[in-house]
């Protein structure tokens, strides 16, 4: 009898302690407890293939992430065959959610030869299968910075097709509604058409669940809401019908990093429209965006040294004063948002942006590519405004394949709106 009572109590306790799951309602994220959710995230990719299989390391990092005030991590590459149980429960215990990219170096959609096929979909499905089992999996990205040039828009239909098929798979397996979205590079020529394209159309099965932007425009204490261009980003989201957030941010010039943009993102002007931010990044490596280091840089030529000399595991040490500055910002920024029960979405999808002769080479009204379709530049070149679409596809095999392009960790550094981004800061394994 007593043991029954104890186990009942334990059952009740563990139910209470289980982390609330995240889903989308209208243009916001909510926890299953009915509270609006704002990401305070950190990009976390210690090693190229999968950082979520090293339980010792996850414990060391999760404890310190709690200290900085994070409630989310973003991981760009995982191996679906790995054992993620320990790391995921460690992060869950720390109140930290996972936003994970479904692609890898070999399965990512590529703007130079856009295609979306069954091999890619099956690889994405394996990641979904693995991570849907964890309550603290908050979202999936179908791509990171696939479009990185002003003329890269022809790849957009393939990204959208990937989200369509990933969502269909999630639903067919009766998994919970884990949000599926995209993380865009900050390319001013594509804005806001790309953002609107990903949400547009009457058929919600073909629209993304969320959109997110990697932006490094707010640099140091002399920047502000106007100078950074955040005011313009904001102007383009006030009627956006799906959640949007910064999937990478955190300019490093000038140093130290002061993260004043966080006050804007979580403040009254932006928090009605934006769902938070992910700071790039946790580990110090050659791009020097780290919030922690695992020890002194070593000579990359030394035996078994990491390629860039930066240790990739061990006890994390906060980088001063950046780590504390971020923590100080986040501590004061706790928008309550709205309760799900008090929120009735009223926004409708934006119109699909029309083909333009300069940068937006996609006619949003044309059907998405089907699985297996490949972009054909010959068809593209015959496009005339409004009568056909980039994203028009053929079923021929891709003529070129490239790996390693469009990879994570690429940033557009400190550019004002209206300037073409400069790509800097690659991960060491690129
Ligand atoms: C899909 O494209 C990849 C290259 O991205 C290729 O290696 C693979 O063979 C293709 N799969 C199918 C089924 O065509
Ligand atoms: C886009 O521009 C780049 C360089 O500006 C060029 O190499 C590439 O061929 C262009 N792509 C298309 C689809 O026109
Ligand atoms: C919506 O899109 C899905 C996926 O492409 C498709 O299966 C479905 O038929 C579409 N619904 C309508 C009403 O067109
Ligand atoms: C985006 O915002 C700019 C102002 O920053 C405005 O000129 C433009 O019309 C907006 N575009 C859309 C589609 O909302
Ligand atoms: C905004 C912020 O927290 N700034 C602090 C960052 O760290 C430096 C050095 O400790 C402080 O002087 C700033 O006040």
UniProtKB/TrEMBL annotation:
Broad class of enzyme this protein falls into: transferase
Gene3D superfamilies linked: Glycosidases
Cleavable signal peptide: 1-18
Domain of life per record: Eukaryota
Subcellular location: Cell membrane
GO MF, one example: 1,3-beta-glucanosyltransferase activity
Alphabetized InterPro entries for the sequence: GH, Glucanosyltransferase
The keyword Transmembrane helix belongs to this UniProt entry's keyword annotation: yes
Keyword Signal: yes
Low complexity compositional bias, start-end: 389-402
Region (Disordered): 389-410
Family: Belongs to the glycosyl hydrolase 72 family.
Function, as annotated: Splits internally a 1,3-beta-glucan molecule and transfers the newly generated reducing end (the donor) to the non-reducing end of another 1,3-beta-glucan molecule (the acceptor) forming a 1,3-beta linkage, resulting in the elongation of 1,3-beta-glucan chains in the cell wall.
Protein name: 1,3-beta-glucanosyltransferase
Species this chain originates from: Mytilinidion resinicola
């Amino acid at each position: 009898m007593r043991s029954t009572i104890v186990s009942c109590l334990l059952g009740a306790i563990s139910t209470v302690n289980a982390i609330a799951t995240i889903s989308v309602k209208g243009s916001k994220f909510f926890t299953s407890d009915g509270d609006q959710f704002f990401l305070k995230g950190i990009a976390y990719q210690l090693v190229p293939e999968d950082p979520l299989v090293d339980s010792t390391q996850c414990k060391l990092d999760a404890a310190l992430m709690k200290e900085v005030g994070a409630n989310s991590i973003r991981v760009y590459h995982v191996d679906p065959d790995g054992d993620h149980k320990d790391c995921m429960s460690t992060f869950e215990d720390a109140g930290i959610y996972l936003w994970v990219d479904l692609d890898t170096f070999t399965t990512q959609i590529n703007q130079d030869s856009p295609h979306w096929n069954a091999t890619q979909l099956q690889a994405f499905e394996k990641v979904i299968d693995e991570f849907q089992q964890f309550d603290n999996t908050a979202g999936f990205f179908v791509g990171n910075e696939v479009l990185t040039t002003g003329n890269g828009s022809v790849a957009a239909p393939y990204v959208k097709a990937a989200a369509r098929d990933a969502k269909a798979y999630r639903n067919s397996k009766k998994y919970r509604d884990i949000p599926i979205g995209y993380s865009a590079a900050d390319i001013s020529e594509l804005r806001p058409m790309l953002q609107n394209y990903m949400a547009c159309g009457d058929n919600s099965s073909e629209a993304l669940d969320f959109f997110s932007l990697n932006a490094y425009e707010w640099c140091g204490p002399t920047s502000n809401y106007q100078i950074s261009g955040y005011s313009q980003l904001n102007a383009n989201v006030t009627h956006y019908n799906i959640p949007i957030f910064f999937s990478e941010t955190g300019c490093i010039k000038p140093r130290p990093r002061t993260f004043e943009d966080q006050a804007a993102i979580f403040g009254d002007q932006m928090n009605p429209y934006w769902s938070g931010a992910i700071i790039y990044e946790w580990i110090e490596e050659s791009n020097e965006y780290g919030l922690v280091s695992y020890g002194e840089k070593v000579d990359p030529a030394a035996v078994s040294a990491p390629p860039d000399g930066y240790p990739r595991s061990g006890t994390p040490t906060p980088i001063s004063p950046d780590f504390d500055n971020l923590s100080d910002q986040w501590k004061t920024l706790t928008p309550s948002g709205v309760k799900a029960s008090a929120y009735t979405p009223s926004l409708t999808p934006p119109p699909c942006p029309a083909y333009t002769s300069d940068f937006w080479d996609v006619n949003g009204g044309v059907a998405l590519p089907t699985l297996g379709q490949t972009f054909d530049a010959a068809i593209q070149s015959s496009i005339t405004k409004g009568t056909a679409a980039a994203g028009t596809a053929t079923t021929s095999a891709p003529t070129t394949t490239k790996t390693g392009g469009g990879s994570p960790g690429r940033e557009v550094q400190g550019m004002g709106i209206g300037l073409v981004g400069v790509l800097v800061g690659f991960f060491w394994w690129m």
